[in-house]
Design a protein that fits this description.
The chain is mainly beta. 0% of the residues lie in helices and 49% in strands. The chain is built from no helices and eleven strands.
């Protein structure tokens, strides 16, 4: 079990950038696969980006490839989501998630720890 707290959301103009941070409690964050999901108004929660515990592998939703980058600094127990070239359709509540690396679901599913979410609003 790990507690996650997102920060860095806000209001940005289309084409702008934001960096989201997810701070994890404890000292075992490297043992957790981590991901970002988002839920836009009227839509289901969707996978955005995920990374292995070491940060050595990443995967992205097609909608954000080339624009978003997930990274982590396990010494700081933090995972980041760099968001560039933001579009209005990126507007959503963004959630950090994590699961112990031995849990199933690959990088895109099976998460059982969730942050409270941070709002990202992209205006045109």
């Amino acid at each position: 079990q790990v507690q996650l707290v997102e920060s860095g959301g806000g209001l940005v103009l289309a084409g702008g950038s934001l960096r989201l941070s997810c701070a994890a409690s404890g000292r075992t964050f490297s043992a957790y696969t981590a991901a970002w999901f988002r839920q836009a108004p009227g839509k289901e929660r969707e996978f955005v980006a995920g990374t292995t515990g070491s940060g050595g592998s990443t995967t992205y939703a097609d909608s954000v490839k080339g624009r978003f980058t997930i990274s982590r600094d396990n010494a700081k127990n933090t995972v980041y989501l760099e968001m560039n070239s933001l579009k209005p359709e990126d507007t959503a509540v963004y959630y950090c998630s994590a699961k112990f690396r031995g849990y199933g679901g690959g990088l895109t599913g099976g998460y059982d720890n969730w942050g409270q979410g941070t709002q990202v609003t992209v205006s045109s």
